[in-house]
Structure formats: C-alpha cells, structure tokens
Amino acid sequence: MILKIYILLLLSFNLILCATQTSEFNVKGMMCGVGCVNKIEKEINNIEGIKKYDISFEKNNMIITYDTELVNDNTIIKTLNANTTYSCTLKTEESNSFISFFKNFF
Asked: Domain extents for the chain?
C-alpha cells in the first residue's frame, strides 16, 4: 500500500515538473540595454505560455520559464529570429549541472 502511494506521488511530481520548463538562450546582436531589450520583451509577451523571463544585455542571454503544453524552445527561437534583428539560439547546458541531471532523469 505504501509503495503504491509512493509511486503515485512520484508520478504526480513528474507531471508537475514536465508542465513547466526553464531554458537559457544566447542572444546576439543587442546593441543596448534598453531599446534592444524592450524589442525582445515585446515579442516574448506575444508568445502564449511564457511565465517568466529575464533578459540580460550584459550577458547576451535570456532565461525563459514557460508552459511546455503551450510553447517550446523552437517556437521561442523562431519567433525572435523572425520578428527581430537579433540571433537567438538555445544555450547548451553543462553535462554536470544539477538541472540537466533531473531533465535527463525524467
């Protein structure tokens, strides 16, 4: 009985994690920390499913948390590359990071 409850809780936890994902993207071509960031924010706000984002001009990147049932990495990249003058690519993760371990586990 306890094993069934444990498995049910583990599966429920897995479903919760799968619904939300955080990805980091490289953004090339930003020339300033105000206008360029505002253009990217405008496009991100038009994408359904984006929950949270942080754009860094200094690091030439952005970190986006989104609902995987509504949007994915490719949609975000295609939208920004098509509607802005910036080049957006998915940043590859280090193989030893804590987050990548859990992404590969589930």
From this structure: 2-105
User: If you average pLDDT over residues 21-32, what whole number do you get?
Assistant: 95
pLDDT of residue 64 exceeding 70: yes
- 3-state secondary structure (DSSP) of residue 79: helix
Those residues with Cβ within 8 angstroms of residue 56's Cβ, 6 or more apart along the chain or in another chain: 62
Residue 54 main-chain phi, psi, to 5 deg: -140, 120
Does 2-105 carry CATH code 1.10.287.1770? no
Structure pTM? 0.70
User: SS3 sequence, 5-47?
Assistant: HHHHHHHHHHHHHHHEEEEEEEEECCCCCCHHHHHHHHHHHCC
Q: CB atoms < 10 A from the CB of 13, how many?
A: 11
Residue 94 has pLDDT above 90, yes or no: no
Residue type, 35: G
